[in-house]
Amino acid sequence: MSTDTQTLDIPKVSAYLEKHLEGFEGPLEVSKFQAGQSNPTFLLKTPSRNYVLRRKPPGVLLKSAHAVDREFRVQKALQDTDVPVSKMHLLCEDDDVIGSAFYIMDHIDGRNFMDPRMPDMDKAGRAGVIDEMNRVLAALHEVDIDAVGLSDYGPPGNYYERQVARWTKQYRASETEDLPAMNKLIEKLTASIPADDGQRTLVHGDYRIDNMMFEKDGTKCLAILDWELSTIGHPYADLAAVIMQWQMPAGTEGRGFGGVDRAALGVPSDAEFIAKYCERRGLDGIDNFGFYLAFCFFRMAGIIQGVLKRALDGNASNPQRAMKVGAYVPVFAENGLKALEGK
After folding, report:
1. 52: CB partners within 8 A, 6+ apart
2. Domain shared by 208 and 79, yes or no
3. Which residues span the domain enclosing 191?
């Protein structure tokens, strides 16, 4: 089986879509999106409309990773909710078609911000985008998981116990060097998991501005992308993921606000963003936020360690970028320790 993540067998894809996708008419033109490290994603252009194909990478993969079937299921379940998602068309789990499972969804003709400073936006525009990001996050956590058929989308029990155990295992499986900061973070995080407060919601798992599509000339979110890490869990993990990202260096690599005058840009402070989220969900506030922040740094370190391992093994979606991203593992681990210690 081929381990090529850069190309698709266009004749095979066309033949499959002609048979299974209503309204599909070729010829088909294919190009690969360079953003995203996990599941290779392709733009499919046809004379009448455009689609997106998102596939599981071929080759040997970590168990439970790259679950495109889960991505398809959750986005399909959210079609008629207040959470914006692309329209799902079909899921193919037959590896014989292109070498791994894939799904087809509508292409969203919008804009994506790889840099949260949004250099091409004015102050009011930035404020609007960030507020929309806040609104959509609150809406996501208010979805009635029973009503949309997702009550079994994640196991019961303490979400953080489950996640810390899972990502520790994933990290160890893709470990390439001994990192004392990561070892210490795993130990401390495991020892400080808070008691379950009963909140059980849909969580995205990688909620940040570059995983969202917005109107080309407005601030409305058209779709949340990249649902690979979604599950039923605890909502503060998503909220803390936003705050975690903002603490990173500014620019398209760190994708944060480190060293940036946010007020001058029209961007709220961490506290203001958290307060607005709590207001939208009717919450009085959040205790022990340092734990949730540390957890997000830990999980992201585990994720990018996997990206680095795939690059070294030769089956990363974007090998050059994967090596750059992988260099951040110790940074995330150290920041996780600081968050846990309240620094």
Report:
1. 41, 42, 43, 44, 86, 104, 105, 106, 107
2. no
3. 123-340
